[in-house]
From TrEMBL:
Residues 12-69 form the HTH lysR-type domain. One of its GO terms (molecular function) is DNA-binding transcription factor activity. This is LysR family transcriptional regulator. Keywords: DNA-binding, Transcription, Transcription regulation. Coiled coil: none annotated. It comes from the Bacteria.
Length: 312
């Protein structure tokens, strides 16, 4: 039987309750301290104070692992929705009292910002004139706490267990080329026909250049070769537009070219496995301006994906 939480011996700090949730979410004190930008000793002391106030242990601790006690798990399940509701109310009151305002620092890659964020961010600041956007562009993954980043937008699988992820889109990649380039080739109906194409290769850290194609439940793995390679997707897109060959490109990155018939799909029924795009934050309940931005981008990307799908 789970140990119950007795009547607290003193008033419980709301801040300590938030710290408790952060440690539970992070799965440990070190990760939570990094996320919160607090010394581990301070965080541990605050949690100990909470446990003393509640008169019950919330965490099992050993040298390698921290986990919730049965009482801690029950407390967490009851506390999280209550704290979320409190934060939502705070955000709504703040939003109503003063329009969405302040600085939003965004970290992402230069390619993604140039090809996908210029228009949505312009629309967002026009809608919220008291917002100022600062873009931190890098191909490397930045430390959100150290660099004081509010939100990072990343493509691919996530490895940062100490961040909160907000799904924005599942982005498939397809083979694209210009109509002029394809006009000089025999019709292509199957991935095996791609051998007659010149591939524009996006170089990665792996030496083998493989192309994974999927059609419903059918998967084909092809080795690709080409006489033009680059480690920058923007360059690959420019080469493709210059009639240099066929490229595997996330469709969201070339939505304008698709809608304007600059690019046409090659083997339109085939695509690569979808790439997840997430917005990452250090807070479970980010400020209203951050949440508004994430919701806005999610809606914009979904609309773009619909337009691309209808046009192909």
């Amino acid at each position: 039987m789970a140990q119950g939480i007795s009547h607290p011996s003193k008033q419980v700090s709301l801040d300590n309750l938030q710290l408790f949730i952060a440690v539970a979410d992070a799965g440990g004190f070190s990760r939570a301290a990094e996320r919160l930008d607090l010394p581990v000793a301070t965080l541990s002391r605050r949690i100990a104070s909470l446990e003393k106030g509640l008169n019950v242990p919330l965490f099992k601790r050993n040298t390698r692992h921290v986990s919730l006690t049965p009482a801690g798990e029950a407390f967490y399940q009851q506390l999280v929705p209550a704290m979320d509701a409190v934060q939502a109310s705070v955000n709504e009151v703040t939003d109503a009292a003063s329009s969405i305002q302040g600085v939003i620092r965004i970290a992402t890659t230069a390619d993604f910002a140039r090809l996908n964020l210029a228009q949505p961010l312009t629309q967002f600041v026009q809608k919220h004139p008291n917002i100022r956007i600062e873009l931190h562009l890098s191909s490397n993954r930045v430390d959100l706490v150290k660099e004081q980043i509010d939100v990072a937008i990343r493509m691919g699988d996530l490895s940062d267990s100490n961040l909160y992820a907000w799904p924005l889109l599942q982005m498939p990649s397809k083979l694209y080329a210009t109509p002029s380039y394809l006009a000089g080739l025999p019709p292509m109906r199957h991935p095996n026909d791609l051998k007659q194409c010149n591939f524009l290769v996006l170089r990665t850290n792996t030496q083998r250049q493989q192309l994974m194609l999927q059609r419903e439940q059918e998967l084909i793995d092809l080795r690709i070769e080409g006489n033009l390679q680059a480690n920058d997707m923007g360059v690959i897109i420019s080469l493709c537009a210059a009639n240099a060959g066929v490229a595997m490109i996330p469709e969201l990155l070339v939505h304008k070219e698709i809608l304007n018939d600059v690019f046409v799909p090659v083997l339109p029924d085939w695509h690569s496995p979808a790439i997840p795009i997430h917005a990452l934050t250090t807070a479970r309940n980010p400020p209203a301006r951050i949440k508004h931005l994430i919701d806005f981008l999610k809606a914009e990307f979904a609309e773009l994906a619909k337009k691309c799908a209808k046009h192909q």
